[in-house]
Amino acid sequence: MYNNIFLQVRLNDKLTDKLKANIGVRQGDNLSPNLFKIFVNDLPYIFDDYCVPAEIGSTKINCLMYADDVVLLSTSQSGLSRCLNKLEEYCKRWCIQVNLKKTKIVIFNKGVKMIKSNFYFNGEPVENVRNYKSLGVIFSASGSFSRVRYDLYQRG
């Protein structure tokens, strides 16, 4: 689809020599979001047999996807571990890289104390956090949306 695509890296106001881009989708290209969606369209179905999905009413949800963001949902620690393992297999198969600096675990509980669990992706630990911001909404481990209400109040 893309022929003769080259890139350069700017470092300290200097450009590197041109490098040929052999993989990936051009950032900012109008086709990029749609190509990515087609590419990962089957991802939610892969989790069906392995995760213990969250339920809203009678709807079971094992992941949420927007652009290149994926949120895995499970009601059990073992279910989430299996989801992470399936995601790892999927990413290896399709040569997709996951940014572990942006990858976090939030365990929702009503208690004050944060529950810590050990989760791994590609052998690397995934950080447990109390709060996580997704699409501008802060999700708190307590399940409270008071932080969201406060942020919205501050914005006016």
UniProtKB/TrEMBL annotation:
Domain (Reverse transcriptase): residue spans on this chain: 1-126
Matching InterPro entries: DNA/RNA_pol_sf, Rev_trsase/Diguanyl_cyclase, RT_dom
**Top-level lineage group:** Eukaryota
> What is the designated name of this protein?
Reverse transcriptase domain-containing protein
Organism whose genome encodes this protein = Mytilus coruscus (Sea mussel)
